[in-house]
Write the structure tokens for this entry.
Amino acid sequence: MSEYCDKGWKAQLADSRLSADALSRRFSLDPDVCTRVIDRYPVAVTPYYLGLIQSVDDPIGRQCLPDLLELQDSPDLLQDPLGEEAHHTVPGVVHRYRDRVVFLVASRCAVLCRFCTRKHRVGTQELAQASADWTAGLNYIAAHPEISDVLLSGGDPLLLSDDQLDHLLTALRAIPHVETVRIGSRVPVTLPQRVTASLVKVLKDAGPLYLNTHFNHPRELTPEASRACGLLADAGVVLGNQTVLLRGVNDDTETLRRLFKGLLRIRVRPYYLHQMDLVQGAGHFRTRIEEGLALMRELRGPVSGLAIPQYMVDLPGGLGKVPLTPDYLRKVGDVTQIEAPDGTLVTYPNNCGPGGTE
């Protein structure tokens, strides 16, 4: 349990911005290195999440502490890996898919993750301006009846005040063609103290809501995080989790097995395992796709299907998400051969029964 867990969420946020001097003192980091990285990619870590770090190179520290490798650029890595800028319609709205939009309603996160897809935007004045006034975004959604699904993102929407969230969710629910409202938030992981009774009431009153959070390692499944997820689940919020496959954090079968099974225990459904986006400043976190496929193969069978997410890649240029799956089919026809999780080759009858189509 974190030694900082009793601090209220607003106090946690107030203490989350960290200087190079503070980091170098606490973790014996080179202050010059910290300064160079922070000048380009600021650091923010809540005292709660900071208290989970056992060492600079542990799976929690790697996710949130500055690293000189962040300054190594590559032509394969992009500031806008998902092509969101090209799909911005009005300030704050990204319309990549016909029937759904991402609505950037907040500019701040409790922790600035070093691998974030919006690494160059979160916490900037540009995103703050885009998310400060929701009028244009709400009007855009209302004017496009093909939009049935709205994902609130940012920054972290749960860092808005209860009143702001209530206003926003009420406005979205008033648009007849909006059927599904989703929230993307890492608050249950990095700032579980934010999940208060008053916040839960706002979310419950606006239901049904779907919330995808972002646990990457089993050590993040603390009593505080479990309590936060329990309060949300009790309020009828449907919880899913999107894990990013990160080198040195969770790129081994045992870590993922413990994480996915642990998520089910706190009523969070493993939803996606993401191949890490092509984010500039985060190349040191990337794994090869073959590694991800091998991990999924090793998990299938020993782990319940309920605890296994889809392995996905979000293609650059805004072309969308595509599932990446191990190939179990060896031969297709009337006699089909399928490889079982343990490697056994199974002959599967593939002909139609009486009345079927030949």
About this structure: The first strand starts at residue 93 and ends at 97.
